[in-house]
Amino acid sequence: MAAILKLNSISPLADDIFAGYEYGDDVKSPTGIMVRSAAMADYAVGKELLAVARAGAGTNNIPVADYAAKGIVVFNTPGANANAVKELVICELFLGGRKITDAIDWVKTLKGEGDNVGKLVEKGKGKFAGHEIAGKTLGVIGLGAIGIMVANAAVALGMKVVGADPYLSTQGALHLNPAVEVAADNAAVFRKADFITLHLPLNAQTRGMIGAEAIASFKDGAVLINNSRGELADSAAVIAALGSGKLSRYITDFPTADLIGVEGAICVPHLGASTPEAEDNCAVMAARQLKDYIENGNIVNSVNYPAVCAAREGKARICVCHRNVPNMIAELTSAISKRGINIANLTDKSRGDYAYGIIDIDGEADGALLGDIAATEGVIRVRAL
Hints:
41% of the residues are buried. The strands form three sheets. A seven-stranded parallel beta sheet has the order 8-7-6-9-10-11-12, sandwiched between helices. By secondary structure, it is α/β, with parallel strands linked by helices. The chain contains 13 helices and 16 strands. Strand 6 (137-141), helix 6 and strand 7 (160-164) form a beta-alpha-beta unit.
């Protein structure tokens, strides 16, 4: 029986998916792990652990590269919380265009003014005049699941939208409203946009991408929205731009000590996916992906191994995590064919330094065969289903 450990509270909708499994927060030797925000860098990985499923998109709390080297597949749930984040971004567009938060804070100072409140409101409201978003240009950096939803919603609100994403998929492009202009690069977006929203992962290439140089290319008074990761923006450069008026607003879902209290900075306490609907969607997607991998060897939405799925054929299924090195497929097929076993189907794909194969055979995947495969140079993990 497979055992799944919960490192965080997970939506109860996952309970039914793991019916028949040992599933809970006190599992000692897990086959799989369900996690949200728990830091796993120091987690003691057991030899039984096959995979980790993150109920969310970001995987910065998981040592993804280390796990790949150990043959542990890491899943995430792209798109499961997309609507929740999209709705927050739309809210923030209005907050960026109009001084709503400042005005609300000011109204609180009128407590105790009694019958004078109405007059004071009429007298003071001019300080908080803003502008409408209709007709303004929204720049969307990153046209994945969330970016596309934000772009389409902004078009429906009467905005002009320009986006950029060097990895825009054909499927993604088909879901994008035809009114959205796809620019050649981020710089083209920066020059045109009144509002800029970031929807891309944090990695070595994107860390600090919104720095002094990038901000200098923005339109004067632009609004920057960051609900992806705080480290995408250089806080010092952002604060300087707010002080000079180059940025009129910086709205982020990732508060830091230096941003709190800065005029023009609106810090939201990481509420992007904080809805029960998003938590349910993420939990269900993560659980289904984890279960499918444990039971069938299929990989969908992994961040450290390639997507490999195949319908079952033959008598047994062999799953192999291996290094992406020459002649590996020949070595694997040789180990099987020398026993006179027919290969019913073979699918093997690579992703960077690693690869994954599913081999369905018309015979038994006994210990001797698995041992030969495991002994092949470059093989990280092998199991039979």
